[in-house]
Amino acid sequence: MSNLVNFGNSTLPVANLAATLRAVNVADPTGGTVILKMDKTGHWVFGADQTEVEDGSTWAINPFSFVHGFIAWGDGEVLGEKMVPVSSPLPDMDVAPPGAKRGWETQIGMSLKCLDGEDEGMEARYATTSVGGKRAVQALVLAIAAQVEADQNKPVPIVVLKKEHYQHKSYGRIFSPVFDIQKWIGMDGAVEETVEEPAPAPTSRRRRS
Q1: Rounded CA gap, 121 and 86, in Å?
Q2: Most CB contacts within 10 A, which of 9, 102, 192, 208?
Q3: What are phi and psi of 160, to 5 degrees?
Q4: Smallest Cα–Cα separation from 44: which of 156, 124, 138, 150?
């Protein structure tokens, strides 16, 4: 567990983490990570091939990785993006790039790492501009802030990626992400020992179009 949860150097002490997270209004892309998202059908997918996340896999959220800012989308491509740590004010933006469908949109993101299953050890970046996505991230950061205030030794949430939905009168069923917190661990991966359970049967992986 320790090697998997190691998020590298952090620039903020854990003691300041709760206040920082509570300031979120809504990770910069780095090499070696994949883009994680929920598609329109409610499936969690990652990478260029849109590989489905393995059901029941657990993910560690880096509590120091939350960023916010703006993104401008064209016709299926990013025309501009500016993200900063949530400890900093939202960046000042000029006029949106030509061709931006909705101008500058507010975005919030974070980094996480898979702890088990077929994707064990994979690092991912999740960023969202959707209302449901922002609400899910906000619920997550508030939970982390409350946890840090209660126990600074275990600020890392271990989550299962889930979903919920509602029925829109014009667009039909709309899916939103859910980060279901299973437990809390330390930045070094420290966690109470638990009894090993039998591994679940392998599940098929699908590529999303």
Answers
A1: 25
A2: 208
A3: -110, 135
A4: 124
Nearest C-alpha neighbor of 19 from the set 151, 155, 146: 146
Are the C-beta atoms of residues 71 and 37 closer than 8 Å to each other? no
DSSP state at residue 5:
H
Q: Which of 51, 180, 28 is nearest to 110 (CA)?
A: 28
CA-CA distance, 202 to 130, in Å (whole number)?
A: 32
Of the candidates 44, 49, 32, the one whose C-alpha atom is nearest the C-alpha of residue 136 is 44
Is the Cβ–Cβ distance between 136 and 163 less than 8 Å?
no
Give this prediction's pTM: 0.78
The 10s digit of each residue's pLDDT in 92-130 is: 988 999 999 999 999 999 999 999 999 999 999 999 999
